Amino acid sequence: MAAGDAEGSGGLALLGAVPGAPRCPHGPALLFVKTSQGKEEGRRFYACSACRDRKDCNFFQWEDEKVSETRLAAREEYNRNHQPSFTHRQNVERHKNFVQLPLSKRRFCQECQQLLLPAEWEKHSDHQFLCDISTAQLKSPSQLLYPLENKKTNAQYLFTDRSCQFLLDLIVDLGFRRVLSVGTPRYSQFYTEDEFCHYNMFNHYFFGGEAAHETCRKFLHQDNGERVIMVTDPPFGGLVGALASSFKKLMAMWKETEKEGPNNQEMPMFWIFPYFFESRILEFFPSFSMMDYQVDYDNHALYKHGKTGRRQSPVRIFTNLTPSMIVLPAEEGYRFCAICQRYVSSDNQHCEICNSCTSKDGRRWKHCFLCKKCVKPSWFHCDVCNCCALHTHTCEKADAGCFVCGKAGHKRSACPSLSRARTACQADKKQRQKILKRVKMGICKRSAMKQAMFFRKKVKNKKKKT
Description:
Layout: E1 11-16, E2 23-24, E3 27-28, E4 30-35, E5 44-47, E6 60-62, H1 69-81, H2 88-99, E7 107-109, E8 114-116, E9 129-131, H3 135-138, H4 161-173, E10 176-182, E11 199-200, E12 205-206, H5 209-220, E13 227-232, H6 240-257, E14 269-274, H7 278-284, E15 289-290, E16 315-319, E17 335-337, E18 342-344, E19 350-351, E20 356-357, E21 366-368, E22 373-375, E23 380-382, E24 387-389, H8 396-400, H9 416-424, H10 426-465
Parallel strand pairs: 10-13, 13-14
Antiparallel strand pairs: 1-4, 2-3, 4-5, 5-6, 7-8, 7-9, 11-12, 14-16, 15-16, 17-18, 19-20, 21-22, 23-24
């Protein structure tokens, strides 16, 4: 179901997770409602929490729909058949057997993305596979697994070495020793049940049940003073509202384990997401702020660091940590703004009117006195919309009503005032068209005669030359 965080004028609105919701292979479905501008809410329905495209998961059910026992049984059977080939516990056992094999017998099927035991070689004989899998490779699963690139479900764009090293150094420098990494769905082959939980970040669902939930809760407990930070890099096409709901529940789990400290303290978090989602993220997490650091990816064609203008990576780090604590690398042009008390990019100039370093995309922004804020350098103030936008934008006021009479409910082509004027001048218009047609025909004839004479002369000149 192509659903988004619809707001304002019409669309699909997310109502969220509700008790007793029906389930698809991705866990409990989310409740949505169709909305239309100026109309009452439409019928409510359940759709898959993780997939925004019906091609990836076609689950759909009206909220008030009565489902037969036969259909429920068929649905449960379907959900079971669409789970991973092996459970997490089975994967742990397979991994133990795999590491005991000599290097020459360690194979990884690239087509099935699976560690192979010798008894399984024949079944995968016509597949491509890697041999001599080392212990170092097993500790770095991203080097073995092909990254998935479906933006609407489970896209896996991998950080460049630059971004990885920066995040690792930053986490260590801040004193964190435990990292809850949310968004690594295919790593169950490589980590034990104490290190990995199969989890849906869109509906806060642990596929391993209460045991997996308890494992996560124990990990969040800061044992022996080891500080925990959550790092997440969700698919950019995911529902922000659904993600925020799940992250708040993880924060609540962390808070339950904290017997000391102020009541308003939050679990430290890095949410890596494009800057144009800033308002949505701050809507759910007012304590967050966006860092200027540009996160880039190895396997993404657009999100690359070092490009100029609009081609720069739009991906940023949102965090609830004090901004001044996030030290950005000076060798990449980042500097500290003493007024804002945070590190900013080289072109992010402090605006004295806004009293802030206002750039979001890495370019130098300009202040608009009419909008009373800084805007992108390519934007200009539109007197019709009374705000800044691109030259090529469609005016909001123009869309709201008719150009001729200014009334809402119809466009210029269907305006009653225009139709009356059009009827009055139709006869005159036809007469003028006839006159223009005669004039054009006369011009065309003269032009054709001149052209024919020119070609005859040209042919004669060619004959003389030859």
